[in-house]
């Protein structure tokens, strides 16, 4: 077991002392995300924006420039080509066609005819704008309900102060991970929503472990102030937090590097979110309890403590 110890048995890092730096960093990420959403918006995938998505592989190396020019001359509207994986793999996006489903299917046949023989079609998707809008709405609702459900669970298991701290920390992780999609214009589709929901569950898992240790320490050390109590609790769970996050990343990184385009955005969001969630559990969620002090049964208030001291 000692081989798994990357940290000493006892650490005494002053996490609470660095809370203002952490809050400033989190605020900067939050503002950057909102600013990018306002200016650039999300690069909505076919799932949400509607349109045609074709993933294909050629029998020979693809000249992307020539293929883009050829498809651009076919009166299909906006056509985007993205090479991925290798020189023979291509991802083709075609905007929603006017004329309904029949026009979209005709556009698919036009693309197939333009590409000609010798192509392997791995994925052909067609999503209408109405369905895409409904999926986007449902994705937002699912994410918000997940965060609120997590908040209610933490508030019920601990106290309302813990619930509010968990709400802020989880929303922080989800919104800042959303910023990754808008800043780098990564395609935002149903897979991205799945990544955000997965991240919300993973983030609260780390936070609950820290909160549970804080509650336990509150019961054992009634004379400690909240700053000392939070620092001690976070230090006690630090090794577990790092090992859990590290082992999860070991499973995700191979998928990120070798999983291909279909899994890239999902695994990139999880990788970034796990690092962000570990940071928020240690620096953000616990430190917020300083400003919403939980009830500590059995601890005398300041005036009573002073009176007791004078009597002795």
Automatic annotation (TrEMBL):
A Pfam family of this chain: Sec_GG
Lineage top rank: taxon: Bacteria
Membrane topology reported for the UniProt record: Multi-pass membrane protein
TM region positions: 20-39, 139-156, 163-184, 190-211, 242-264, 270-291
Keywords: Cell membrane, Membrane, Protein transport, Translocation, Transmembrane, Transmembrane helix, Transport
Coarse class of the protein's main subcellular location: membrane
Domain Protein export membrane protein SecD/SecF C-terminal: 117-293
Protein family: Belongs to the SecD/SecF family. SecF subfamily.
Subunit comment: Forms a complex with SecD. Part of the essential Sec protein translocation apparatus which comprises SecA, SecYEG and auxiliary proteins SecDF-YajC and YidC.
Functional note: Part of the Sec protein translocase complex. Interacts with the SecYEG preprotein conducting channel. SecDF uses the proton motive force (PMF) to complete protein translocation after the ATP-dependent function of SecA.
Name of this chain's protein: Protein-export membrane protein SecF
Species this protein is from: Azospirillum oleiclasticum
Gene that specifies this protein: secF
């Amino acid at each position: 077991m000692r081989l798994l110890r990357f940290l000493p048995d006892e650490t005494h890092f002053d996490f609470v002392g660095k809370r203002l730096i952490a809050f400033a960093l989190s605020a900067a990420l939050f503002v950057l995300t909102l600013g990018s959403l306002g200016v650039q918006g999300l690069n909505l995938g076919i799932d949400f924006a509607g349109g045609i998505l074709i993933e294909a592989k050629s029998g020979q190396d693809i000249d992307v420039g020539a293929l883009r020019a050829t498809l651009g001359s076919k009166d299909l509207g906006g056509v985007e080509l993205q090479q991925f994986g290798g020189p023979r793999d291509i991802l083709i996006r075609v905007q929603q066609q006017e004329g309904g489903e029949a026009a979209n299917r005709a556009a698919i046949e036009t693309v197939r005819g333009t590409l000609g023989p010798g192509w392997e079609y791995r994925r052909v998707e067609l999503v209408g704008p109405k369905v895409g809008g409904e999926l986007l709405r449902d994705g937002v609702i699912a994410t918000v309900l997940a965060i609120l459900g997590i908040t209610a669970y933490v508030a019920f298991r601990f106290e309302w102060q813990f619930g509010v701290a968990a709400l802020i920390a989880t929303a922080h992780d989800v919104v800042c991970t959303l910023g990754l999609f808008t800043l780098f214009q990564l395609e935002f589709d149903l897979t991205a929503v799945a990544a955000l929901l997965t991240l919300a569950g993973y983030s609260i898992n780390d936070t609950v472990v820290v909160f549970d240790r804080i509650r336990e320490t509150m019961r054992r050390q009634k004379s400690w102030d909240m700053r000392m109590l939070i620092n001690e609790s976070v230090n006690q769970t630090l090794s577990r937090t790092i090992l859990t996050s590290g082992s999860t990343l070991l499973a995700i990184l191979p998928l990120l590097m070798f999983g291909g385009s279909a899994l890239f955005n999902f695994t990139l969001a999880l990788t970034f979110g796990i690092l962000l969630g570990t940071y928020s559990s240690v620096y953000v969620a616990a430190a917020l309890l300083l400003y919403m002090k939980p009830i500590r049964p059995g601890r005398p208030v300041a005036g009573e403590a002073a009176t007791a001291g004078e009597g002795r």
